[in-house]
Amino acid sequence: MDTNDILFERARQSIPGGVNSPVRAFGSVGGSPRFMKKAQGAYMWDEDGKRYVDYIGSWGPMILGHNHPEVIRAVHDAVDQGLTFGCATQREILIAEEIRRIIPSIEEVRLVSSGTEAGMSAIRLARGYTGRNKIIKFEGCYHGHSDSLLVKAGSGMLTFGNPSSAGVPASVTEHTLVLEYNNVEQLEGAFKQYGDDIACVIVEAVAGNMNMVPGKPEFIHAMCELCTRYGAVLIVDEVMTGFRVALGGAQSLYGVVPDITMFGKVIGGGMPVAAFGGRRDIMEKIAPCGPVYQAGTLSGNPVAVACGLTTLKLIQEEGFYDRLSAQATKLTTGLEAIAKDAGVTFCARSVGGMFGLYFLDQYPQGFADVMKADAKSFNTFFHAMLDEGVYLAPSLFEAGFVSIMHTDEVIDETLEAARKAFAKVAAQQ
Ligand code: KE4
Fold this sequence. Notes:
The protein is built from 14 helices and 18 strands. By secondary structure, the protein is of the alpha/beta class. It has two domains: 3-63 and 318-428, Alpha-Beta Complex (Aspartate Aminotransferase, domain 1); 69-314, Type I PLP-dependent aspartate aminotransferase-like (Major domain) (Aspartate Aminotransferase, domain 2). The strands form five sheets. The protein has a seven-stranded mixed sheet, sandwiched between helices. Helix 11 runs parallel beside helix 14 (408-428) and helix 13 crosses helix 14. Ligand KE4 binds next to helix 4.
């Protein structure tokens, strides 16, 4: 047993599943998770000192690479002034103004500490603003683990959802309609049938929780038009895509103006900052100015905000997203070429600094397509890359992320590892 095995065994004595978030447990790929000790730039090191090229980046936040010196300095300076006050601070104004400056659809924004809080609060706000109860989400999209979102598709077309987790009463999910991602006709049908009862639609415009599946432009634009026509609130969940697929997020790529946007990950730069914001007339319904209650002890925490604010400043550097996108494209096109040479059925694509890897012969258009991927080949590839010191997302249903520190040299090192990994996949076919 190596250190990771020993630590995993020990962790499970005190922590459910040995982890504080399920995906870290390697449940779908098998083996022991890696217990990381430190990280720098594009790399992480485990407790045994083994180095890995990191393509998770803490599931998105580490767009600058780990431990950017200016971010670390800003955090140290903030720590020296105090960890938390539970009071208003000037720094919260600064980050709110910065978010508004970068994302034109944001007139007001409320900081929270996780994407789950952002999603839960945005839905409560949409219900409070419209006085309606029903919400629409899409199969394969994830918006955090609040009760009304832990729901799987109903038994038939356009039937309301059933809980996808124990502990969630059916009475909570009976207001949630789960539709097929990228299915315009079904969405139009739902509005035709329930339109005046729909409080909101919540969507990842580039879905990153069923591997990576970009929304079709016609799907996203139809959603906007239907929400406007029926008076439903459009919530675009940019927890993952915000400041990741482009500086202006997915909404800037699709040219849409959400009523409410959720943020997370990059806006915290690796520390717990998330947010929801948008139209002033909707946001003014939030306490203390309106009747929709929402609160948080550490919301807008000064140290975390210092981390996020510095990150937001640094990603606005000239050419940042051109460089980030170029590295993600170098990775995905390189992997496709190597897989083809090895005779392995595989494709990959990227949007800005996030990417999807698919053991499929064509890009998936929705959850049902992703489910057809060759899990056995993925697992072999994942572990072969891990052995070669490349850390990919330990799940077929996750997207991957590059940072600005994933230089040509880092990508070439990854592609070298992939030659061996795809050879192993081919050998088992
Ligand atoms: P958190 O509550 O985990 O901060 O954010 C929830 C969330 C909301 N919306 C989107 C689009 C998200 O991707 C997430 C969280 N993403 C996962 C990765 N797929 C976080 C990793 C984990 O659960 O450990």
